[in-house]
Amino acid sequence: MTDASEHPQIYLITPPGHKLGSLSDTLSGLLDSVEIACIRLNTGGVDAEDIARSADLVREIAHARDVPIVLDGHPGLVENLGLDGVHLSEGAKALREARKSLGAERIVGAHAGISRHDGMTAGEIGVDYVAFGPVGDTGLGDTEFAAMDLFEWWTLMIELPVIAEGGLTLEATETLSPYVDFVALGAEVWRSDDPVATLKSFAERLAI
Fold it and tell me: What's the rounded Cα separation, in Å, for the pair 36 and 106?
């Protein structure tokens, strides 16, 4: 996972593990149609067995294309599952423990919600990126959103790569493009009738 790119890169979030089995062909098509910087394996609502099955499926597809995979939570499973890192939203203690246990070679990413302070704390701990969001309405009852000025400030003041995620539209993606290193897309793509075409549309907005 690298931020060495002229334009923001796409960071793809999978559907929950129990929905992945029928989507393997779609995932392959997405990775073959648009350059993906990283995949986050969504573990929401699934048990350890489902996580392992999902990891096997995604690892085979992603690693064949040199795309790293981070696990949403469960840092203790990363090494055994042959994944590249972890994405955490549990706060400073969990981030410190993950950084220590996974070492410098694996990715540790942090979700900081809409909090500049939490993002800065994560950076001090030594994470590889900070994600802020949701940016827009996700349909999950969000009442607060990561504002544009948060990303503008972060890019001006902090060198650590930043990700925008949650409720992204094509228009918001284009507006955010100068101020982020990555955009994280999940439901925006998977809920589409044509995920490949939708992903290409987002990629086009990032290249403007």
Answer: 18
Distance of CA 160 to the CA centre of its chain: 15
Q: φ, ψ for residue 87 (rounded to 5)?
A: -120, 125
Spatial distance between the Cα atoms of 191 and 205, rounded to a whole number of angstroms? 19
pLDDT digits 0-9 by tens, 13-33: 998 765 676 788 999 999 999
Q: What is the DSSP string of 72-111?
A: ES-GGGTTTTT-SEEEE-S-HHHHHHHHHHHTTTSEEEEE
Mean pLDDT for all residues in the chain: 93
Which pLDDT tens digit goes with each residue over 115-169?
999 999 999 999 999 999 999 988 877 779 999 999 999 999 999 999 999 999 9
Neighbours of 192 (CB within 10 A): 13
Helix (H, G, I), strand (E, B) or coil at 112: coil
Pairing label, strands 85-88, 9-13: unpaired
- Report d(CA 90, CA 110) in Å as an integer: 8
71: burial class by Cβ within 10 Å (0-12, 13-18, 19+)? buried
194 φ, ψ (degrees, to nearest 5): -135, 85
Q: Is 205 helix (H, G, I), strand (E, B) or coil?
A: helix
